[in-house]
Structures are given as structure tokens and as C-alpha cells.
Specification:
Elements: H1 12-34, H2 38-46, H3 53-77, H4 81-100
Length: about 100
């Protein structure tokens, strides 16, 4: 990050916080965009049609993506979740460190 985005004057630790926040936002948005085809598949049964085996597999993939996003969504929806954000950030960082080992 440089001076063009206005972060050059910020302390290093704050730039790291902003960088990780932007990375996670991009990841969550990418996962949500990948589930865009889920609603027409869910409505297929409601409209009296049946799912093919390929569509069932696709739905399972969508459900797995949503399950991976659930900690993010729960933290945003719960009352008082803003107070829990520092603990949540610590927990996410611990998960990342375990994966690198």
C-alpha cells in the first residue's frame, strides 16, 4: 500500500489490519457471489420439478460454502456483536496460523 490510497501515513500495524480486513471482505463477497445460482435450484422443487443428481451435488456445494461463511454472518447478526469483534478477529487469526503449520 502506498501514498496513492491514503494509507502511507498510517502505522504499519494499522495498514496490516486494513489489509486483512480488505482480504476477508473480498473472500466473503466471492463466496456469496458463488452462491448466486442457489435460489433457482431451491425453487425448482417448490415449482413441482425434481432435482437431478448433478443439481443435488451443486446444492451441497452451495450449502458447504454457506456453512463456511456462517461465523461471519453470525458475528454480524448477533446483538452486541460489535463488542465481540476483537475476540472474533483473534479467533480468525488463530485459525489462519493453524492452517499454515
Amino acid at each position: 500500500m502506498g501514498l496513492t490510497d491514503g494509507t502511507g501515513a498510517l502505522p504499519v500495524w494499522w495498514r496490516q489490519v486494513l489489509s486483512s480486513q480488505r482480504r476477508e471482505v473480498r473472500r466473503v463477497l466471492a463466496e456469496l457471489m458463488a452462491t448466486r445460482g442457489m435460489m433457482p435450484l431451491l425453487m425448482k422443487v417448490r415449482n413441482g420439478e425434481q432435482w437431478t443428481p448433478a443439481e443435488r451435488e451443486e446444492l451441497l456445494g452451495h450449502m458447504r460454502r454457506m456453512a463456511h461463511l456462517s461465523p461471519y454472518l453470525i458475528a454480524l447478526v448477533l446483538p452486541g456483536s460489535v463488542i465481540l469483534l476483537p475476540a472474533y478477529a483473534w479467533w480468525l487469526d488463530r485459525r489462519r496460523l493453524k492452517r499454515l503449520d
